[in-house]
Amino acid sequence: MMKSYQLSICSGEGEWKQIDLLPGVHVIGRAPDCQIVLPSTEVSRHHAQIEISESGCFLMDLGSVNGTQLKGSPLQPRRKVILEPGQVFLISSFQFKINLVEAKAGFAEGTAVSVAEQPKTVIGVLPPAVAAPGQSVQLVLRYRRGEGPWQTYTLVEGEQFIGRVPTNQIALDASCVSRCHAKVVLKDGRVTITDLGSKNGVLYHGQLIPPNQPVLLNLLDSFRIDEFTFELAAGAQLSGLNIDRDSSTVLEVDASRLASEPIPTGRLNLLGQDRVTIGRAPDNQIVLDHPMVSRYHAVIERLGTRSRIVNTHSANGLYVNGQLVEGTTWLNPGDNIKIGPYQMQFTGNELHRSTAESYAIDVIGLNKYVSKDLNLLKDISLSVGQNEFVALVGMSGAGKSTLMDAINGFRPATSGQVLVNGVDLYKNYEMFRDDIGNVPQRDIVHMELTPEQALNYAAQLRMPADTSAQERAAAINSTLNDLGLTFKKDVPISRLSGGQLKRVSIGVELLTKPRLFFLDEPTSGLDPGTEYEMMKLLRHLADQGRTVLIITHATKNVMFCDKAIILAKGGNLAFYGPPELALEYFDQYRTHRERLEKDMEFDDIYRILTDEKRGKPEEWRQRYLQSEYARYIRPQFTQAPAGQAFVGSNRKRKRISAFKQFFILSARQIRCMVQDRASLGLTLALAPLLGLMNFIWGSKLSDPVEGDATKIMAMWYMVAVIALLVGSMGSMREIVKELDIYKRERAVGLKIFPYVLSKAWIGAALSLYQGTAILFFVIILTKPFVRHLDGYFGLWVTIILTITCGYLLGLVVSALSPNQNSAQTILIGVLVPQLLFVGLLLPLDKIPGGNIISLGIGTRWAYESFVKSTGIGDKLIADPCWNLPAEERNALTPTQKEGCLCMGPNIFKNCRDFPGILSSDFYDEDAKVALAQDEPKRPLEPTWLPSPTPRNTPTQLPTPTLLATPTLFPTPTSYPTPTRLPVSIGGSPERRSTDYAGLSPEDAAEKAQNEAYWRANKYQSDTEKQFEEYRLTREAQFNDYQNQTRSQLEEYKKQVEGQFDAYQQDVRVQVENHINSEIDSMEIYKEDVKQQFTGYQEEMEDYGETYSDWTRNRQEAIGAAETILGIVYDDYGRSFHGSVIARWIYILIITFAQFVLVLILQKRKDAI
To answer: Which whole number is the average pLDDT over 495-522?
Structure first.
């Protein structure tokens, strides 16, 4: 026969209560679905369980936060122990004692009783203290006269009086009630009633209470004053609905759930009420005490038979059927209203609170494709219940972070759905944004702040703008108390331990009381003890009414969780369910030897999943889906409940204004700077130190004698570069160092513009100090050339604008950098163009594209603005000669230069204040004398002697008479032409007939023809021979004639040449005699001239030496001075033209462009 057991329960010093335990499992906890409900926040939702079976009575702690004590020691989570009759165990302040009793009739041996059939046991409603420490409960006093309608008064801390006169908080218009009848006191969560010596008294439990003696009231206790009935109940802050004290509406509350559920179902009757206000302030008719609810959030107005709801400029929005209402919308029966975390349904005449106290998450078929062939999540489905604590575990590369970000909507999956209480999260993200808390692996707090300061600034950014400082402080103190950080609230976060630091990050998210909480490896890097405390804290947070999902490697403490998601590589779901069942599930894949060696532990799951011999990732997924444990992935909601088929709104809700965010962020930034004294000290000391470095230039850099204009240009170049470096180096990590903080704050409503502006203006403010300090030492140490006093103002404005421009450049680098380590490398790459495209190292005209690229270079405009502010080139650009092209300028003569302002000798009159223009290297005493004297006078030239009279040209000799032409030989007589031979070709016919007699006609003709041929040939031969003899005779005759003629002409030629040779010789002798006579005459003239100019030559030599010395001394000084001015003008003349203001505008445009670029880069980081 199965033994029967009875459980005795005692709360504190109260009475023992007995419960008969039927066979089966009895869950003890705070949740309403437990068989034994303990109304205390120190008790977890599912704290422990008692199992009654044939083997006996067993007790198991279900991973509770505060543990279960047996025999003075805490039980190990999820380990069954035997309970012996008479043993006592403790849960919080509750004592339990197990007793063995006789079996009752009606339960025969072997009879199975379903646990679901067992009655639920609620231990009390609330202990006498009414509200447990840390639990936020609003108490109300309900009262009515006779059977009339109920009225409600919200109790406040302190005294409340009941009486007949109107000055009482609860005025009862009845003669049987005394003027001041009774007093109700609420103090530290305890409520007492005191009779103030009234005439008719106060009835409590049917008896009059003694006058002037307070009596403690428990929740739902009632008392009477004559015909008036009073009842203590939970009001709006517990129920989510509070009714105005003058209203006749009744708030119905299920008393059995008040202690265990923070926001139970409520119902508000709207009949007879024309206007119902909803908000956080106590004077609303419906009070919703939550940080995400504005003080006056919305108003429901009844106009005849219709009702409408008005958004009264709430900070976090009003949603009706998932649509953001920015103004007014009419309500229809069945409409769902969401205000902050509260959901209500409008039925027409009533407003019903949703029964959902927390969020359940249904993940349906998630896939995450990053490319066509790469899917990081393999069709994952699972269901997370309300207020469950779920661990997400798996080896590296399994897709844990990807899955978490897909579930929380931070990086949505490419396919599939995530339903929150049946509502599509992806389509309605704005509606759930404030209910999602996300703590990344890296901490999301500023290390320079204290925990209290960090939470304060986070509260200012996240809570509605109408949240008072007192409300914020209360939320901060409550959060610090929940996290156990009260005693560390004033300690800089940088000095906290790893566990405490992680608690601060968690606290930032807890400020707004999110009901979905996601944490990425919150126990990473913690020692085992701190790791245990962290998991215990998270278990506690889940028990407070949150659904918590964490990524963790803390397998030793996974038993704190309600369920565990185990991923195999490649995003394959290997298991989902209670962690103790995970041990049971994977234990079947161990060998017999492994089971003998040790019990199954969570660490063994990793080894099993990585062993390919036991299965590949896809196989583990299939095994789980085909197992009985796959029941845990079935969704609780397959679609939105009736009336909740929400369609997401793309409009952003109204949040804290950009103006207010700017002031909050600026205050936080300044606080961080001030509390980081070391960095602030270095920042403040850097500018004077850099200014002092200008001693290297000396104090005579601008002196006309010892100065050097090129060094002045180099100095202003260095000042421009240093100013830009000071700004950029100070801000290059300003954004990237708080990237995780920015992303999280951005996800909950941070605007980009105020965030960037809060960084930029502080940089501009710092530039005022840094620029002033640097310029002060530049002026003191170098005494720079400044032509006008207003030039100093120009220098001051320029250096401030340059540092600010550099600060924005550093912010661009910081926004561009993926991490802090890369910021410095990127900054170097960005600064190199700032050094090259200034125009000092190399003229911009000589750099390909230099003139275009330099338009966006801040140092160029800063450098030119510095030079222009000094006025060093003002006289040069005022001189038209210097404005000529270089070729024309170099071609100017000394005479032309005398009309120039700063050329020729005028340099030393008009430009003598130019640095180095009076250098002793060329402007010495000789040069000064030469420049002071007039040009030496040239000696007068003597009168030239008259040239000698030329001699007469000799008379030309007569031309000789030509010899007579010889008589030609007579032409020889032509040889007579020979007489032609007679033609004889054929004979007479008679002969032919005779000679050919006897021959045939044909033979006779042939023979006659042959004879004719022979005669013809004979005649031709004789003729040719005759003419050949004639030709030879004729040719010999003409050859003789030709030879005789040639000999005659040769003789004639010789006679003519002899005649002319004699004539030529006579002429030559005549000319030479004439030339010699002329030479003799000129020699005499030469001697006369030489004697005449010997004195003039000596005078000219003296003049030449004097003029040469005068010219050299002047030209050396003028040439050197013009060279100095020419080098400066040619290399740096660009800086002399234009205006300082125009260059300031360029710097401001570059600075503004960099500001816009930072906004764009920050916008690209948005994940949701």
So the answer is: 88
